[in-house]
Each structure stands twice: as structure tokens, then as C-alpha cells.
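ok so I'm stuck.
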Amino acid sequence: MLLLVASCGSARVAGSAKPATISPVTSAASVTAPTSAAQPTSGAKTPATAVERWVTQILQEQYTEACLSSAPAMPAGQDAESLCKRSEASASAKSLREAWAKPGVELPPGGKVEVATVTAKGDKVTVPDTAVKLDGRTLRSLELIGATGDTGSFSLSFKVEKHAGSWYVTGFDLNA
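replied:
not stuck anymore, here's the structure
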């Protein structure tokens, strides 16, 4: 079964003997806007567009860009560049890519990432992996390829938040 350590935002892993919540380290300094060539992209107009962009970046192995794309929605006191350079952030992103990039599935730019319509009530929404498709297959179906045992309770969902009028993927929840 898939196990993720940390993400570019926060990850919550549940369903194990010892459920854990893994969050990024908070620094005492104020938020430092990234200044390198890997500037965060502007936010998305919809939650679905934010998830589509983020998943596409992960699939294209643009892990730092995906991480930095959440920077505008990070809480005060977190340094996006430092967080995104941590090995845990890239390890989680690589684990997600491995879970989705399966033989016979075309990855972007040829393969298309599509997200079902997401209805947000307020400034936060959760998007399940069943609402996201890659090359016509849901992320959930791709995640379960090769899985054994009872997979009925397995799920992955993306946490998406609106900040300053735009939407950003801020983390994900994994229930195994």
C-alpha cells in the first residue's frame, strides 16, 4: 500500500495502527516569498483548475513548482522555499507520481489531467481522487493497481483553499 511521508503543504495519513498528521515545519521568520527562478504560479480561478495544475506538475516531475504553487496560501511564518527544498517534500511528490504513472497510461503533456466540477462552499474544499482523471482513468484506480488486501477504505483527497481570490492545493489526506 502507498505510504507518503510529507507533502508540499500538509498531509494527513489515517487508517494505520498509529494515525499520524504530518505538517511542515514552521519557522519563526515571516513568510519569505520565493525569489528564485521557481516562482510560485498565480492561483487558479477554480478549485478544479488548482488540482489539475498541481497533479500535472507532479506527473511532469516539477516537484518544486508544485510545492511552490501553494506558497501564497501558506500560513504566516512558513518559508516556502525552505519547505519545498526538504527531502520529505520531494519524496512525497515522487511517491504520488509513482502511484499515478502506470504502464499504458499517457502522462502530460500528451495525457490529459481532468477534474470533475467541484462545488466549493466557502474558502475550503476537498477534492477526492475519484474526481481526478489521468488519460481517462481516475487517480484512485491508478493508485490501486498492484494493491493487495482490503482496499475498500483507501482514499486520497486534495485539500484546496481560496486565498486572496485564487485557489491553491494546500495538502492532501491519505486514508489507508
